[in-house]
Amino acid sequence: QILILDFGSQYTQLIARRVRELNIYCEIHPFNKIPEITPAIKGVILSGSPCSVRDVDSPRVDLDLFRNKLPLLGVCYGAQLMAHTLGGEVNASKHREYGRAILNHPEHSLLLDSVSPTTQVWMSHGDTITKIPDNFELIGSTDSVKVAAFKLTGEQTYGIQFHPEVTHSTEGKTILKNFVVDICGCTQNWTSESFVESTIRDLKEKLGDDKVVMALSGGVDSTVAASLVHHAIGKNLYCIFVDNGLLRKDEFESVLHSYQDMGLNIKGVNSKDHFYGLLEGLTDPEAKRKAIGKAFIDIFDQEAHLIEDVKWLGQGTIYPDVIESVSVKGPSATIKSHHNVGGLPDFMKLKIVEPLNTLFKDEVRNVGRALGISDNILKRHPFPGPGLAIRILGDITPEKVAILQEVDAIFINGLKTRGLYDQVWQAGAMLLPVQSVGVMGDERTYERVVALRAVTSVDGMTADWAHLPYDFLADISNEIINRVKGVNRVVYDISSKPPATIEWE
Ligand code: XMP
């Protein structure tokens, strides 16, 4: 495997993804929490950083930990750190260098082997290496950055000023492959199938005859995690799927069926009334979230207590959540954690098992495919834990939920029938707390407004409104107004995130 040391660059996760796309396992660790260097680690990559090596308190690592022991590649800040600490000079660039540049590399080097003699690379840096020490060999330059790539004489230590991990560096993947395969000697055998096999083996060993309880949501992560645990321990995995009355139309029944088809030991718990009861009269979004969190803990705790001698709690936590919670940047962790792991009652004192905590989302989907889970679940849009409660602005009543479920179902089914569902990252409808005038037949109506929201995104952190075809929106609007009693106006949300968010509450 490859160890990636993170100095806080926005691109660090991309380095990991590119390495994994080469079927080589890698892990990101913060620069100040270096894990034990085991024989499994075949090489180290130092990431970029928003910091400047010229600042006294900028992040540092002792390069001698790795030099002459393991191949080492410094990217951007990582390369500057090498130059700066090994006797070269780093200064502020005259112009901040950002964007495309053409790399020339006349000399042969292992790192740039089979890369075209002139190739496009992506620069993003404010500092530049102005002088390299005698034992550094220059292996690549651009017009404005003389020291764009270098190697240390007699050792497998390399530095590059550009970012090979971004797609704009057109041959970046070849460069990373040269490093991890040819220089580090990693074998490209880390695949979904190998992950499934080794994870099931490890889970069997870890869990033995112990019982595990898991709450499933119908989402990709919890389903794939449960399937892995199920393959390892079969009926000793107790799954609980709670109907909080805030799911999509017919979702509870259809997801429950899918779980039964997968052979899971699943219990569906109808707790609608408990949730509606706790939500009654609440209008503040955070108060609603809290009430739902609490209701969920009540139910889950009650159900888990019915399982005798349960020792473990299974969770679908994935790698980005883990990285964020230990990241160099820190505090952003809290935002995500309340989405995914929040609400775990610590009095339950269960040990945690998280079989997906080293995987990115797309890798989770691939593992799901390797496990034979249907696309119906794997390609499902994300859906918030508090469900329709945060899509009904204002207080929640069963009647409002029923209206929104109908509207949402028309919209989502429409997207599916028109082949638009997979082009959209997330979609749904909001029930607004306003009424507006309309005419139906000869009568004036005074009814509800719904807003449709569909976005494109990669990870939900930023998003654009989906440019759905007008004729599709027209059809959906007609269908909603004609079929859903109580709604006489449909609007489409054309805000991007930021500054708006995906949900309205
Ligand atoms: P926002 O509205 O913050 O949403 O742009 C980003 C993503 O997070 C989901 N979301 C939630 N998920 N509990 C959840 O489990 C929540 O309270 C919550 N709020 C937003 C949202 O659906 C989108 O995918």
UniProtKB/TrEMBL annotation:
Pathway: Purine metabolism; GMP biosynthesis; GMP from XMP (L-Gln route): step 1/1
Alphabetized UniProt keyword annotations: ATP-binding, Glutamine amidotransferase, GMP biosynthesis, Ligase, Nucleotide-binding, Purine biosynthesis
Gene3D superfamilies named among the record's database cross-references: 3.30.300.10, 3.40.50.880, HUPs
Molecular function terms from GO: ATP binding; GMP synthase activity
Subunit structure: Homodimer.
NCBIfam families named in the record: guaA_Cterm, guaA_Nterm, PRK00074.1
Name by which UniProt lists this protein: GMP synthase [glutamine-hydrolyzing]
Gene coding for it: guaA
